[in-house]
Amino acid sequence: MIDHMGLLVSDRTRSKAFYAAAFAPLGYTAVMDGPYGTGFGIGKPDFWLQDGAPTDHLHVAIKAENRAAVDAFYKAAMAAGGRDNGPPGIREHYHPNYYGAFVLDPDGHNIEAVCHKPEA
To answer: The VOC domain covers which part of the protein (predicted)?
Structure first.
């Protein structure tokens, strides 16, 4: 099980603003911030932004409690400057209840919100 992960970002101030907006519908907030990085999470930081030059683009998926949260993530991320990489919807090629949305962050990382539950 993964305890935490970190992304290198070229402009942490810009990325903090993007992730604060995009993650708000998922309950993630900036829990810690300092010279070592900015940690987002729910109570405990598990998603870190660290200063540096991204060498590869990563794909990160954050679990959403329901499909409405996936929709809200996508809307918030797009309003915060994200680029569309797949609007909210069912991805049956993964499984029948896979509901996800994909956005590219300011550095081109593919960030996803996903709900695996059937529609209520």
So the answer is: 1-116
